[in-house]
């Protein structure tokens, strides 16, 4: 399997005519973990939603490609089948569809007709992943996210990630609302995915997640664009000093977007 690449070039995105992203550039390759940080209202979640094709977000300029294919020409389900995955801050509940049914359908959606995963192989993989995430086995037969606590929903997102095995995952504030024990377990599941065929974009406010998942690259977003990039040491400095030093260094005035 060749190394996948998600490329975002000069991305401009608007909501209801208001420009939110103002020229974002990113490239994420298989084997790389990238973290995007920044103050509230700088466009981080808009970036994830635009990549995955949320209809609320209008791309007015720029390109998004996955392995050279135009992502913007794909429907939402086509983006998922092509190998993109979004771990959401607030996962949806779906009544009438069990976790196991949803996961097996998602796995088979990325396989050729006639090459569907066998039931026994699927169950073995799912059970193994649930053990890593310290999830009760009965959660497989519960309706998708229905009645789940915040921590259970986040573990379930990572269960989906580990089972589906996408090319590139976007994890939007996956640490939101997790206590320290749940954070360690979720991080362990994400780290299990590390290999040259998997790239990850982690959107977070806090250094604490990056204590457990070491990024190869850290990017800071302000005013709808990436204004600074570096290694893990950049996240540590942000935790210690906040964002004011970047604003002063780059002459950025306070201004927020959505």
What does this structure look like?
The chain is an alpha/beta fold and 258 residues long. It has one domain: Rossmann fold, CATH 3.40.50. Helices cover 35% and strands 28% of the residues. The chain has 9 helices and 12 strands. The strands form 3 sheets. It has a 6-stranded mixed β-sheet, sandwiched between helices. Strands 2-1-4-5 form a 4-stranded antiparallel β-sheet, with helices on one face. Helix 3 (99-109) runs parallel beside helix 5 (150-164) and helix 5 (150-164) runs parallel beside helix 6. It is globular and about 60 Å long.
As laid out across the biggest beta sheet, the strand order is 6-9-10-3-11-12
Major beta sheet summary: 6 strands, mixed
Our measurement of the CA-to-CA distance between the termini, rounded to an integer number of angstroms, reads 38 Å
- Please identify the top-level CATH class: Alpha Beta
**Helical element count?**
9
- Taken from the alpha-carbon principal axes, the silhouette is globular
Question: What's the order of the H and E elements?
Answer: EEEHEEHEEHHEHEHEHEEHH
Which strand-content bin applies to the residues?
Answer: 25-35%
Structural class: alpha/beta
And the CATH topology?
A: Rossmann fold
Number of strands: 12
What percent of the residues sit in helical stretches (DSSP H or I)?
Answer: 25-40%
Please identify, by name, the CATH architecture: 3-Layer(aba) Sandwich
Under CATH, the homologous superfamily reads P-loop containing nucleotide triphosphate hydrolases
Task: Report mean pLDDT, rounded to a whole number.
Answer: 90
Whole-number count of domains:
1
Unreliable spans are none
| Computed CA radius of gyration, to the nearest angstrom | 18 Å
